[in-house]
Specification:
Elements: E1 15-17, H1 21-33, E2 38-42, E3 47-56, E4 65-70, E5 77-80, E6 84-89, H2 100-112
Length: about 130
Amino acid sequence: MIAMSDTQDSLQGTSIDLSNLDQAKEALDKAFDYRGDVTVQLRDGSTINGYIYDRHPGANLDDSLVRIMPADGSANRSIAYAEITSLAFTGKDAAHGKSWENWLKRYAEKRAKGESADLLPEPLDE
C-alpha cells in the first residue's frame, strides 16, 4: 500500500519508485485518480510531465497502459506500466479538498456566522 504521512492528505509532492512491481498498479491507479500533473520516469531515462487521463489494466504490467497528455502540448502518449520506473505527483491536485462533505461544512460554517452562502461553485484557482 502506498502510504502518506500523518500530516499529508494529498499525493502532491510525493514520489513513488515503481521497482516494486506489487506497488506499480496501485501507484498508477492513484496517478489516474490524481487531478494534477505527474512526472513519469521511463526505463530509457526520459521523463514525461503531464496529466494521466486514461488507463487500461491488463493481465500483467506489459499489457497494462496509461495514456498521458503531456504538459508541453506534444501528442498524447500511451505507455506500458512496465516502462515506468517512477512517478512524481508534481502538479496541484485540482480536486483536493473539493469533496461534497468539505463544501457542506464550509456552507454550514458561513451560514452559522450569518455570512452569505450560496450554491454557486467555488473558483478553480483556490
